[in-house]
Amino acid sequence: MFDDRHVLLLNQNYTPLNVLKLKRAVLLILAGKAELMENGRGEVRSVSFSLPLPSVIRMHYFIKRPYFPPKLTKVEVFNRDGYICQYCGRENQKLTLDHVIPRYRKGEHAWDNVVSACDACNRHKAGRTPAEAGMKLIHEPRAPQGNHFVVPYRVLRQHAEWDKYLGNGDRP
Q1: Residue 38 region, left (φ>0) first, then alpha (ψ -120 to 50), else beta?
Q2: pTM for the whole structure
Q3: To 5 degrees, how large is the angle CA 44–CA 166–CA 20?
Q4: Domain co-membership, 152 together with 127
Q5: What's the domain range around 89?
Q6: Which of 8, 20, 152, 167 maximizes the CB count within 10 A of its CB?
Q7: Are the C-beta atoms of residues 103 and 109 closer than 8 Å to each other?
Q8: Other beta carbons within 10 Å of 86
Q9: Each residue's pLDDT tens digit, 83-136
């Protein structure tokens, strides 16, 4: 029953905290520390009760989390760009990082100079700027703002019901 299903954990104020395994989420509900927000299709049964399988749960108390600005990593850049190539606009899980101004031309490895690119676009651009390669960026790169909670790509695609809690009204 408790396979690799994932559950979104929300803070008391409905901000995302973490992605949990199903077993941990059920234990939080049974301990009275969290409440069920979304049913994950199915139920857990015992002799004396049955509990809907959670997909989203919310803590009964507020968990204070310190703010740390996101580190510049591949995963963070891909999540910022919604796993979409910033040159051709195709959604792709196999992306590379591209420096808008190439590093050999003194382009920095910074949020405002790094974008997601598919292999074909990255090869076409090569060591040139987008203008020199005749390419245009879909969005200008910048550092993520606010809550930068990251859900792994493979998990996000399995749970459309999480969108309203993650602010993904228009899925990437």
Answers
A1: beta
A2: 0.65
A3: 35
A4: no
A5: 74-133
A6: 8
A7: yes
A8: 26
A9: 899 999 999 878 999 999 999 999 999 999 999 999 999 999 999 999 999 999
